Amino acid sequence: MKYVTAHGASIPALGFGTFRMPQEDVLRVLPLALKAGFRHVDTAQIYGNEDAVGEAIIRSGIARSEIFLTTKVWVDKFSRSDMGPSVDESLKRLKTDHVDLLLLHWPQSPVPLEEQIEGLNALVDAGKVRHIGVSNYNCALMGEAVRLSKAPIVTNQIEYHPYLDQTAVLSAARSYGMSVTAYYAMADGRVPKDELLQDIGARHGKTAAQVTLRWLIQQQDVVALTKTATESRLAENYAVFDFSLDGAEMDAIHALARPDGRIVNPGHLAPAWD
Which structural domain, as residue segments, surrounds residue 114? Predict the structure, then answer.
């Protein structure tokens, strides 16, 4: 496993995501994912599966100390009075006394960003959260979060795949010493069907999905989330550390980006994108 380091956080570069994964699928697949080698698990309050994630970690037999566990605070819990109790509930559901990384899930909120960041810092001070970060932030918001926070902001979790150019956010994150965590890596099923990615994969004996995950984690300070409810795909998704892409292949994948490549864009939650 490769690790990405940011402000003292050592984050496994390949994570297992649980977005839109029912509890029964989490309980079935996550223990197998951990046994296959995954050590980074990503969930969120809004996913409704923190209970199952906590139970699956116990069932896996893998020590909690070996797992980098991320969850996210939903936008209705950003206030000073709500954030702490909501995280206490998350910890109870996750069956742990801390999470390794806590993120603010989306930026749009009537609660001032300063109050949100104060809430994150209070949880770090209380020992309930080891590291903090943000999700779906643009460059300006990242800079503001960094300025307001006593504890380092270690990542910005964003949509990132071959069809969406995130150069500006990546550059800004690096300037702050942050990592970027990529979600929606498969671009809602588009990646496995892409002929260029299939052709590159054929040269390496890999699938288009594996090529894309490799493209992500081969970039500086990028963490990639993968997800599957299909047990047979776990080993495939994890097998991205035994090959590398050359410069021409990396550039060709970058060139797939297009102006309309963004998939996730809820107007009531999203910022003005870079």
Answer: 9-186+219-227
